[in-house]
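Pasting two entries for a bug report.
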Amino acid sequence: MLRTTRPLAWQIAQLAWPVLIAQLASIGMMVADTVIVGRAGTEDLAAVAVGSGIYVSVALALAGVVQALAPVVAHLVGAQKVSEIGPMVRQGVWLVLLLAVVGALVLHFPGPLLGWAELAPAIEAKARAYMNVLILALPAGLGYRAFAAVANAVGRPKPLMVIALVETVSHALLAWLLVGGHLTGTPLGAVGAAISQTFCVWVALGASLLVMLKGEVYRPYNIFRRLEGIHWGRQGELLRLGVPMGFSYLVEISAFTLMAVFVARLGAETVAGHRIVANLSALTYMLPLSLAIATSALVGQAVGAQDEIRARRTAMAGLWLACGLSVLMGGALWLAREAVVAPVSSDPQVRAVAVALVIYIAVYQFCDAAQTIAAFALRGYKVTFVPLLMHITCFWGIGLGGGYWLAFQAPVPQGVAGFWQAAVAATVAASVLLGGLLVMVIRSRRRSA
């Protein structure tokens, strides 16, 4: 097993590391917003926290739909159907435009979402202004995600990694100039951060278009050879794959978002400690996510080439690699829990809450990696609907519903720990269900081959 999976694991790692850096760069943009806007005042920071939470949820859900390009293009690459790649990417552009309209409506009319937050009028006004600016960023952000999906599918993620790094640094500088009024003379606060993000994401889209236009690897695909109208057959294929993928993203995001809403009932120190651990969890998730994206692309290429043995071995290599690294990362988190939490907060109560919760993210690293790789490998096989149902059951049912019961309704209420205990149970269940489904798909294809 090791002899056959080791070269594939190395191939996955080679594709995954640029994706990982690009993912970390995107987190860097959010960190920059928090640091820079925090100096502008509490109201602006609160507006960005709420506004960016809504924007990121909408953008990632829609980007999940766009990510359907990845398995479709990977299959075409594996099958060497070069002439079909360009038309499919052009249909992806139409899909981006259609989804951007949907997202713009949600961001422009966020009343139901803001109602949950019960914001002060001044903060709500700033949050609305922030999101109205980001409406202009949404088409570019989705377009960039579409081209990133294509780049990952053809195995060329490095140029987009460079673009992501430059975008993050540029955003930090421009946001500092606009938020504090160093460029305009008048501090723009939260709106300045949104303007900076909008400008930088359009530049990133332009750079990615240039890569697609000039890159040797993309030349045979004739992506920009001509314009064409909407092809509903190809749109149907993208939507059949992409809508479940987008909802899967939304399920996971909303589960953790609503967890934070419920935890808010438990007091400021508990909320702060939970927030530290939630951010740490999001950061550590970038590793298995990057490996999963690479695994999905290689599985898709193998399936497209009708090489079922290579597809199966690639999926297994992704699982071994991600789970092994996650065990190491979980152990390191547990051993260094005090050192990891200490720089983030000086409040002893907050640190005590965070340190006590680190054990849960250390424990679920393995299962979270397994369920992520399994879900993305299934995407490589173009299986997305049943995984969505499993995500709903695990993350909304076990994770959120079970967490609420453990935290507030159990005979001995567990408080915030109850939510994290349920999160561990949810990832265990997801890894078993998705792993079992992956095995079933592989066996089914082996019998029909």
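Entry 2 (this is the one that rendered wrong in the viewer):
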Amino acid sequence: MKILLLSDIPPCENLTAGLVLSALVRFVPKGSICFYIVLNPIIDIKLNPEFANIPMRLETKPNENWNFLPQRRGLNKLSRLITFAGEKVNEQFIVSKRIKDAIEFGKSQNVDRVWAVLQGQTTIRMAEAVAKGLEVPLHTHVWDPFSWWADAHALDRVTKNRVQKQFNKAIKASQFVATASKPMAELYHSEFGVNSVPVIASHPIELAKSPVTELTNDEGILIGMAGQFYASKEWECLIKMLECSNWRLNNKKVKLIVLGPQKPPGEYLDTNVKYLGWKDQKDAAYILSLCDILYCPYPFDKKLKEVSTFSFPSKFVLYLAAGRPIVFHGPDYASPTKYIADKQCGVVVGSLLPTTLYNTLENLINDRTLYSNCAKKAQTAFINDFTLNSLRECFARFIGCDELVGDLENNQHYLSSEDNKFKEIEHRISNRKYSSFSYVAHGKLILAKRNIVKTREWLRKKVVSRIPPFKRFYLEIDYYNREVKRLNKIIMFQNGKVVDKPELLIITQSKLWIDGLGDEFDRAKYIIILSESNSIECLIRKFLLIDYDISIVYFDSNISIDIEILKSEFKKIGKKIGIIFDSNNNLESFMKKEAHEDIEYLVKK
């Protein structure tokens, strides 16, 4: 067996699709796979040494995203014409060249099957042609329906229809199809008569956290969310609901914990929505397990009905592994809705009304039996459906091979990051954007749009607004804009009472330590948390529930938890730690015994 993987993203650790491909490629025996990757020059790829010893060809794919062109009425016809012409040029000159190149590469590697990821115009156009040129079976892999991709990338109607036909043709010509969900597999089997199997992002069984069957008994509620914000209206509904309830549920304050590649949209206080950035799967599962409820929004928009029906969010699998109740906020026809109804691993909110969302959350919090059952069944669903054993079985059916490697045989494709070959590949990936005409042209157009916006703003402020007929009109607009901002600020900052950010956050296990601070200690400048628990999870929750965003957490030197463990665990949420000593003598004594890097030290006065 020798597989040619044709994809727009290689196995990597900083993109969702790359993570799924990484898990699948680990199953393939050494010497049984090669890559032909057409990379988007704009996307940053972090090459994993684990797969760097696989033969690969890296090429730049032509521009597929046309939403940088003006889409408003009056100019959209011109934009569609440019899009149509650009796609024609791409198909006739660039994609045809990539097809020939991929066929030559596949022949040199003696491949006997093509595994093509149908994501974007380029790989869709290439898939069937490459398999025919190599005279080998085609196995296609689908993340999402093409209609969603076409709309998100502003394709013109003619191009969208043509590429959709090529997509359907590639599916029909496939020996086997890997799909994003069970409903999608059933659709392709009934519509095209092809063998299909859902191949959904899965994780090692060790990632599963013990289900927490009771709401944490402290002063707040943490709602966790991971992933991208393609369901923006649903997210806005959550924010609006929390604002209307003064960020409280069941008489407890609420904090949103967000993990992902982009900061959440909308207006809110950073103290209420705590964005922790991108985390690897292990750390993400750990942080989500500290939350009380996991929120999964999915689009109600009728334009995205096909996506909601046939796709399956990868974050949902991670939520199941975290062992906490899931609140799915999406339509009744969505694939996760059907999965939850079958497995009873969460609750569904099928409305965009904030009151409906609020009532569902309140009911989940107050109904102990429901909360406990959702947590238990979430972990059961993960173990039964989304471990690597399940993934390997599905992938073996899809790729047509029973000789896949087991969990213990990792790193068979490894190449040291110090190796010259690895450095050469890494250099090609990092420098591909600067040699790409589409990347340079795209950058110039974006810059031109920004300059046009700045010029228009300057003309409005300096020229048009000073002309008598328009002067009063623009003065009123500016006044109302300022008033709206002022009123929003008053609402967000609780009637304008803005509390200064404290200088330090201190966590101690001893009330005596607090009592010993003395009267000269200005407690208004500090937050002091008393926690008698030795649980790291308890300490991190207490930190996440505070009303401030503080970068360093200080502990008193008498804390019984190992310093290195504290540093490691708080690093997962992007925070440093520090130690406060009673005296310089205590500090010197501590430093003689053990010195720690990246830890701040302070002495009480």
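Dev reply: Rendering is fixed now. As a check, the viewer should reflect this: The chain is about 45% helix and 15% strand.
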